[in-house]
Specification:
mainly beta, 19 strands
């Protein structure tokens, strides 16, 4: 800790000569998490042993501001305890540059930001930080923002490549080749409204043998567009969204949508209850067309939706039968404690067929999520949870594994996030 303080003092000394109105702060995050996975993301196969491990994230955030100039630098290391020997000379993942951006505020309304940055909007259904994942999510992009008292317009552009090259080469990273979006937010009385248009271009992969010279690399563009609403009063709040998708993906035509509605009511100052429903379009297993009809939340914080056991849309369930998720939410807060209970009832959005081609019951199963959090110190929080999935034969048909086995997940996470230096 003393070493980090000395490093920060050196940085301040270097930048403070002949300058004024500067702000600099540095904060540290250490976040270990224990997990017991016994049917996480999918029913555990018969005879398999549950997994147990401790993962961790360490971050150093450096924030600097002077007049119209703002910049942020975040280093992070993500690891699983024991992934290298105690006497190792190197780390498996090393140090990652999670954020590295510079922003210039032209005036009170216009600004631009470029570099590695978190892109997150509204409830993070389409674009989010994905903070639950230890590595989280950030993008290399240029962002232009216009903002006044009631309105904000963000426009961004990204272009990805493997490396510096002299001729075009196939893009080998599992990500978009190019991305553009516009996000507009305004307030109409007590209702907050957001509009999003997102254009993502994915390069079609060349299959071996790749001819020489390399042919022109085709990029398919898919558009995701829609709106998000939220409002609240003294005792209740609600939100709703609708997003559609069109364009091309892997040369196939895309036609999909996502719609949801949520409502929460504060029964007392400590107890809150809510309910919600989400429909994500999918494709019937009997549909032989090449069209993509399954909605893809793309860069959303999907762990926060459709159950914490991540059976849907967290690196899975893509181009599947879609999903209907009806859920309840109960929350209780008492001093330093916070408790939440979230039961989900899952149903397929389209037909699931058994091995003989017969239509199966659309009910996939019920998941019960329970979480608790305790504030130990202003810099220390402990959270934990237990989830259990009660899957059906239809769930097993879609996800595999063994639904007759007990499928559950438990975790405990400690978040230590001190501010180690601040200067103004």
């Amino acid at each position: 800790m003393k070493l980090l303080q000395k490093m920060a003092l050196v940085c301040i000394s270097m930048v403070s000569i002949h300058t004024f109105a500067q702000e600099f702060d540095a904060n540290l995050q250490i976040r270990p998490r224990y997990e017991f996975r016994n049917g996480f993301k999918a029913p555990i196969p018969y005879g398999e042993t549950p997994a147990q491990f401790i993962s961790g994230r360490t971050r150093l955030n450096l924030n600097f501001k002077q007049d119209q100039f703002v910049t942020k630098l975040t280093f992070q290391n993500v690891r699983v305890w024991g992934d290298v020997a105690p006497n190792t000379k190197s780390d498996v993942n090393g140090i990652q540059l999670f954020e590295a951006w510079a922003q210039y505020n032209f005036n009170e309304k216009w600004s631009t930001r470029l570099g590695r940055q978190v892109i997150s909007y509204d409830n993070q259904r389409i674009l989010g930080e994905v903070d639950w994942a230890q590595q989280a999510q950030s993008h290399d992009a240029v962002l232009v923002t216009y903002k006044n008292k009631k309105n904000q317009l963000d426009m961004a552009f990204a272009l990805n490549a493997n490396s510096e090259t002299d001729i075009a080469v196939p893009y080998a990273v599992a990500a978009y080749k190019t991305m553009q979006y516009a996000w507009y937010h305004t307030a109409i009385d007590k209702i907050n409204v957001s509009l999003l248009f997102l254009n993502t271009g994915y390069e079609n992969k060349l299959t071996a043998p790749i001819p020489t010279p390399t042919p022109e690399l085709k990029v398919d563009y898919m558009q995701t567009f829609g709106t998000y609403f939220n409002t609240k009063s003294e005792n209740w709040d609600g939100n709703a969204w609708f997003y559609g998708q069109t364009g091309k993906n892997s040369t196939n035509t895309v036609s999909a949508f996502d719609a949801a509605l949520n409502f929460n009511y504060a029964v007392t100052s400590k107890f809150k209850a809510g309910l919600g429903y989400e429909f994500l379009s999918g494709k019937s297993q009997g549909d032989t067309s090449s069209d993509i009809k399954s909605f893809n939340p793309l860069f959303g914080t999907n762990h926060g939706f459709n159950g914490y056991m991540d059976y849907f849309y967290v690196g899975n369930h893509k181009n599947s039968v879609g999903l209907q998720d009806a859920f309840l939410k109960f929350g209780y807060t008492a001093k330093k404690w916070q408790f939440n209970l979230l039961p989900h009832a899952f149903t397929s959005a389209n037909t699931v067929l058994d091995s003989n081609g017969n239509e199966m019951n659309s009910y996939l199963g019920t998941e019960i999520d329970f979480t608790a959090a305790y504030a130990v110190h202003k810099f220390i929080n402990i959270t934990g949870g237990y989830s259990q999935m009660f899957g059906t034969d239809t769930m097993q048909r879609v996800k595999g594994g063994d639904v007759d086995h007990t499928n559950n997940w438990a975790w405990v996470m400690i978040n230590v996030n001190p501010q180690i230096f601040s200067f103004k």
